[in-house]
Amino acid sequence: MASPADHAPFVEQVERLLAVGGPLPIVAAGDPVLRRGTVPYEGQLGPGLLARFVAALRTTMRAAPGVGLAAPQVGVALRIAVVEDPAPVPEEVRMARGRVPVPFRVLVNPSYEPAGPDRAAFFEGCLSVPGWQAVVARHAAVRLRGEDEHGRPLDEVVTGWPARIVQHETDHLDGMLYVDRAEPRSLSSNDAVVERWHQPTPDLAARELGFGLPGRPSGGPQPR
């Protein structure tokens, strides 16, 4: 359990961030805070400051816009993340990706483990790696454990795109970026994804860029 003396640096840091008002600055790849991992949240901010910090994370995520934001992405090394996805996508995308709406929620001290052997690969981006996307193979379902902002326990199985969001944000709390898990040959600018790889699945990108998908070969252009 952290002592009151351990709390002070986090309280001061968050108070400084919130004093500016509006969306918080998002830390970009290359900043060590994104690689150092996080400290478990043990009440360092207190209920009032935590609520204000969560509200600021929500504002920042929506303004970016994004579907998740972890505390290290605003420079705070606490094990806290927020997620929300209205999922405004066509039906064919929803079906292919399992992308369904995720209401706003707070993840405190989250962890995940696979809930089954299946993996799914799709293009993924990150607010801390602006301008780029890459294909990442992730668990199709995970068991999420942790707490909400009120200390109530979380223990549930999450599937589809919501499972991808949970993995992405929890990875941030462990000092990992999506590019660490991505297929290197799939790395594409946002413009290229919009212009070339906007299909519901990354099959065409895999064939043209020469990378494998779960259960399929890699190492060169795939047969058409």
UniProtKB/TrEMBL annotation:
Name of the top EC class for this enzyme: hydrolase
InterPro entries: Peptide_deformylase (IPR023635), Peptide_deformylase_sf (IPR036821)
Cofactor section: Fe(2+)
Region (Disordered): 204-224
Highest taxon of the lineage: Bacteria
Entry keyword set: Hydrolase, Iron, Metal-binding, Protein biosynthesis
Catalyzed reaction equations: N-terminal N-formyl-L-methionyl-[peptide] + H2O = N-terminal L-methionyl-[peptide] + formate
Keyword Flavoprotein tagged: no
Residues that hold Fe cation according to the record: 126, 168, 172
E.C. designation(s): 3.5.1.88
Free-text comment on the cofactor: Binds 1 Fe(2+) ion.
Family, similarity comment: Belongs to the polypeptide deformylase family.
Role: Removes the formyl group from the N-terminal Met of newly synthesized proteins. Requires at least a dipeptide for an efficient rate of reaction. N-terminal L-methionine is a prerequisite for activity but the enzyme has broad specificity at other positions.
Entry-linked NCBIfam families: PRK00150.1-3
Stored HAMAP family: Pep_deformylase (MF_00163)
PANTHER family: PEPTIDE DEFORMYLASE, PEPTIDE DEFORMYLASE, MITOCHONDRIAL
Protein name: Peptide deformylase
Organism: Streptomyces thermocoprophilus
